[in-house]
Design a protein that fits this description.
It contains 2 helices and 9 strands; from the N terminus they run ααβββββββββ. With about 140 residues, it is α+β, with helices and mostly antiparallel strands.
Length: about 140
């Protein structure tokens, strides 16, 4: 009899404890918590890179193997044409001339324009490159 009473008390305690701290798990849609959609262009599409320096220092830009470093003064805006889409995997390297970390905010301004805004950040090392893959995806490195 004592085993039966002990088992009943333990079962009741576990049942009540689990009911008190239960949080029902509900399945949600991806749209509710997935964040913004990744930026992507059509493969082979002409892309215009619009670059804006919203820092207080000079920022240098360079397309590896294509251009020498381009200086972007504070508050300056620059547009770079990205060819005819035959160039595979386009990279744009950037750095703060004072050695400070940068935060690059990327957005799709319109159908064929990728807008990149540079802002100061306290989190080292910061963003350093934008990589446009030949399948149209945009990655931040």
């Amino acid at each position: 009899m004592s085993k039966f009473v002990s088992a009943t008390l333990i079962a009741t305690f576990l049942l009540l404890a689990s009911a008190k701290y239960s949080s029902p798990t509900l399945a949600g849609t991806c749209a509710s918590k997935c964040g913004p959609r990744p930026i992507q262009f059509k493969p082979g599409q002409n892309i215009i890179l619009e670059v804006v320096n919203n820092t207080y220092n000079t920022v240098k830009l360079q397309k590896p193997y294509t251009t020498s470093p381009i200086t972007l003064q504070p508050g300056e805006k620059l547009q770079l044409e990205q060819g005819d889409g035959t160039e595979p995997n386009i990279s744009l390297l950037f750095w703060n001339e004072a050695g400070l970390p940068l935060k690059a905010t990327v957005s799709k301004a319109n159908f064929a324009t990728l807008r990149v805004e540079f802002r100061p950040t306290w989190y080292a090392p910061g963003d350093r490159a934008i990589y446009i893959l030949d399948d149209g995806r945009v990655n931040m490195l």
